[in-house]
């Protein structure tokens, strides 16, 4: 048998949960800092044997990628197919590398259009594979992302690449 006190407790639990979640969302977070504000200082002071303290310069967090001649890299044999429930775009394409060095981390920009010619969706895709020098490599059924269901045609272009 359920008493009046049990009913009040069960009615109060959802109200307390809502109040707790609202308080947690509205509470200022002092520990969180935006990603761009984080700085990693790697200056290290190492005392040598003679007692003089020298500082080493901070280490670089990111390396600048080597420049790739995109005029000598092209996409060919592009085709577009839908996957999943019709909202996933699967692109099949071939990358031709005419450079005298290997390339990697290809970034593609794909534009999907409807039948009337308007752009409906644009997606960027980074392909983290290596294409050897003076060769070609096929990428079958590569997931580019979710697209508008009205998209009928697709065209991809190479935006960036880096040396392997």
Please summarize what this structure is:
The protein is mostly beta strands. The protein is built from one helix and eight strands; from the N terminus they run αββββββββ.
Remind me, CATH topology of the domain at 70-163? Immunoglobulin-like
Kindly provide the name of the CATH class of the domain at 70-163.
Answer: Mainly Beta
Mean pLDDT: 78
Distance between the termini: 73 Å
Secondary-structure element series? HEEEEEEEE
Largest sheet: 3 strands, antiparallel
SS element count, helices: 1
CATH-scheme architecture of the domain at 70-163:
Sandwich
Strand content: 35-45%
| Spans of at least 5 consecutive residues with low confidence | 30-46
Q: What helical percentage do the residues reach?
A: 10-25%
What general outline do the C-alpha atoms trace?
elongated
* Sheet with most strands: strand arrangement: 3-4-7
CA radius of gyration is 27 Å
Please describe what this structure looks like.
The protein has 164 residues and is mainly β. It has a domain at 70-163: Immunoglobulin-like (Sandwich). It is built from 1 helix and 8 strands. It has one helix at 4-26; strands at 45-46, 54-55, 73-83, 88-97, 103-113, 119-131, 135-146, 153-163. The chain has a 3-stranded antiparallel sheet with strand order 3-4-7, with no helix packed on it. A 3-stranded antiparallel sheet has the order 6-5-8, with no helix packed on it. Strand 5 and strand 6 form a beta hairpin. It is elongated and about 80 Å long. The protein starts with a helix and ends with a strand. Residues 30-46 have low confidence and may be disordered.
